[in-house]
Amino acid sequence: MTAEELTPEARKRSPLSKACWVGAGALVLFVGGMLAYGIAVPIEGKLYCTQDTGPSGGGLLARARRAIASRGIRFNALPSFDAAPSPDGTRWVWSAQEWGDPWVTSAEIRMGAVNGRGAISLSAAAGLSGINCHPRWSPDGKMIAFRHVDVSRAKQRAPCRAGFQLWVMDVDGSNVRQIRPEDIPDASLATWSTPVLDWSPDGSRLLAYAGRMDKDGHAFTTDLSGSEVRLLPEVGIDAVYSPDGTRIASSVQEKGTADGQPGVWRRLVITDADGRSPRIVVEQFLPDAGMTSQFPKPEDASYDPHYDWQMNARYWAGPRHPQWSPSGDMIAFLGALPFDPAGGVGEQVDLWLVDLDDGSLLNVTDDDVWQTALRWCK
């Protein structure tokens, strides 16, 4: 299903100019209708979504709709954009960043409850300084995989994407070591690497991505020694295994044309576990001609004159950041579908669900608040 086939819902507006009893009645009818609507879309397990504050928050009724239609989804519940739940769902790991002027000076990996309580520093226990991000539990809950880079290599606006060194440690911070994939020469100094890595369900391999998504990037898997590397040419960024380990979902970017216009296709793609037999689940086309509005404002350009703002828009417009449901029959993802190049990218990014049986799509949030991260767990 393409983004062009989607019909945006008419936004409901709060009747503030009417009497309070009329507004209350409308709200009751609205919530009742959305409750019936939400029952048809059951949320399996727990789906957590982190949001940046938007200019209006979507309005009172939009918030009511989101709360009802997406029950089972906990908004603003993640302690960090890269937080990950333990296999039993009792603990979380995440990175906590310290900012200088204007760069991140350190980022430590912490473990604790989803609300951040009782947190301990695993990177401190491991004796690691620098930038430590994107921790992921092994399926048996005994190890943590993460990414590490020295501060000197991370001086950019997105420090957790600045370097690409794969590390693992035991869950108490002991036995920390770097994994050095022998066949990935740029794995230690990737200029733009995706914020996601994943374990195979049997715990024997790591799935990751090195390089830029718009050129010369490559997904790969490696064993824990780094000596057995397999390239996955059909797999893109944000790659994650299905719960049974037979498939991989990822976000793919590919240059192409539509109606004679050059641009970029953004796709949510599922492959077999070996990276073959790609299947497009969701896609949208972003024409080059429409991206000129994504040039930065003067104050943004002066803050970081080398930042590629059009690439940033294509990156977030999505679909991206897929997360499988525990049963593997649905995928949650982030994206602006369809993306309006005349508007800001952040206000258009929503949380979506796609049913893998019939390809149907549901916009869960449908507001002007930027959805920035999500996690689906049992």
Short description:
With 378 residues, the chain is mostly beta strands.
Write the layout of secondary structure elements.
Layout: H1 20-39, E1 46-51, H2 60-69, E2 73-75, E3 84-85, E4 92-99, E5 104-112, E6 120-121, H3 122-126, E7 131-137, E8 143-149, E9 165-170, E10 177-179, E11 198-199, E12 205-212, E13 215-223, E14 229-232, E15 237-241, E16 247-258, E17 261-272, E18 279-287, H4 298-303, H5 309-317, E19 320-324, E20 330-335, E21 350-355, E22 361-363, E23 371-377
Parallel strand pairs: 1-2
Antiparallel strand pairs: 1-23, 3-4, 4-5, 5-6, 7-8, 8-9, 9-10, 11-12, 12-13, 13-14, 15-16, 16-17, 17-18, 19-20, 20-21, 21-22
Notes on the protein architecture:
The structure is a single chain. By secondary structure, this protein is mostly beta strands. It has a domain at 80-218: Neuraminidase (6 Propeller). The protein has helices at residues 20-39, 60-69, 122-126, 298-303, 309-317, and strands at 46-51, 73-75, 84-85, 92-99, 104-112, 120-121, 131-137, 143-149, 165-170, 177-179, 198-199, 205-212, 215-223, 229-232, 237-241, 247-258, 261-272, 279-287, 320-324, 330-335, 350-355, 361-363, 371-377. It has a four-stranded antiparallel beta sheet with strand order 3-4-5-6. β9 and β10 (177-179) form a beta hairpin. α1 runs parallel beside α2 (60-69). The longest helix has 20 residues, at 20-39. The chain is globular. Residues 2-40, 54-58 and 187-193 have low confidence and may be disordered.
Determine the CATH superfamily of one domain. Answer: TolB, C-terminal domain
Main sheet: which strands, in order across? 3-4-5-6
SSE topology string:
HEHEEEEEHEEEEEEEEEEEEHHEEEEE
- Unreliable segments of 5+ consecutive residues: 2-40, 54-58, 187-193
Strand segment tally: 23
Alpha carbon gap, first and last residue: 28 Å
What is the CATH architecture term of one domain?
6 Propeller
Major β-sheet, in short? Answer: 4 strands, antiparallel
What's the CATH first level of one domain? Mainly Beta
Shape verdict: globular
**Strand content range:** 35-45%
CATH topology of one domain: Neuraminidase
Number of helices: 5
Question: Helical amount among residues, as a percent range?
Answer: 10-25%
Mean pLDDT: 78
Structural category: mainly beta
Q: Report the C-alpha radius of gyration, rounded.
A: 21 Å
